[in-house]
Amino acid sequence: MNTYDEVTILTKPIQIAIDGPAAAGKSTIAKIVAEKLSYIYIDTGAMYRAITLKALTEGINMASNDEAGQLLSKTEIDLQPSGDGQLVFLDKKDVTEAIRSQHVTKAVSEMAAHEQVRQRMVELQQQLADGRGVVMDGRDIGTHVLPEAALKVFMSASVEERARRRFEENKKRNILTPLEELQAEIAKRDKMDSERIVSPLRQADDAIFIDTTDLTIAQAAQEILKLAEERLL
Ligand SMILES: Nc1ncnc2c1ncn2[C@@H]1O[C@H](COP(=O)(O)OP(=O)(O)O)[C@@H](O)[C@H]1O
Ligand SMILES: Nc1ccn([C@@H]2O[C@H](COP(=O)(O)OP(=O)(O)O)[C@@H](O)[C@H]2O)c(=O)n1
């Protein structure tokens, strides 16, 4: 048994919120931290991606708050823990892979800006987290979804490094978007996410900033586990 297992068993579980811009390493690190602490991991971006996939499939007007709201009322989104990650179901169909396409990625920030969409997603996220040890990643977790989280982290890295990481990740999945195009897409999405009116991407006042540009995955995970351990003791 390692230190983290002992700590988890002996103490009440906490909520850990990890926010930050695209491809900063949030979900990779969140999964590791959740596994070490035997907590559940929730990737909230997957929910916004799922509703965006449906909007694209049904051809609804992404700019319309009303159309987005109507779509939502006839949509079921479900997240289920799987191994060290999560499966995403849209109207009972497994869309875990489909929501990662460039098509969805390019459209998601417009969909995620709608107030009705955010309200519903936040409700679901709060229900999933209620009363359990959880590591949740997204854009507004520390500021809005889990304002009482015991540990809040705002994770970032240079946009060049984030685009490089996403490029390498895409290559493994046979997505061959050029590096420059990825960097422009990431920068545009960060801007839209930061400038939207409803719960924009921003660091919570009580969040700890971690720059992962020069950190390995193991180093970044270790930093957060150390901070979690301090709060568990
Ligand atoms: N510290 C790191 N060093 C190198 N690569 C990383 C690091 N953190 C994450 N990655 C890689 O970068 C890519 C994007 O990470 P991801 O966790 O999906 O980011 P986010 O959830 O913030 O969008 C993944 O392929 C992941 O393996
Ligand atoms: N809590 C969240 C999570 C994601 N999102 C939106 O969903 C998009 C996709 O999030 P993601 O975490 O899957 O994106 P990546 O960082 O993995 O590329 C973001 O660009 C935001 O527009 C959000 O608005 N609020």
TrEMBL record:
InterPro entries to which the protein is assigned, alphabetical: Cytidylate_kin, Cytidylate_kinase_dom, P-loop_NTPase
Keyword Metal-binding: no
Catalyzed reactions: dCMP + ATP = dCDP + ADP; CMP + ATP = CDP + ADP
EC number: 2.7.4.25
CDD domains, alphabetized: CMPK
PANTHER family: CYTIDYLATE KINASE (PTHR21299:SF2), CYTIDYLATE KINASE/PANTOATE-BETA-ALANINE LIGASE (PTHR21299)
Family affiliation: Belongs to the cytidylate kinase family. Type 1 subfamily.
The name this protein goes by in its record: Cytidylate kinase
Gene name of this polypeptide: cmk
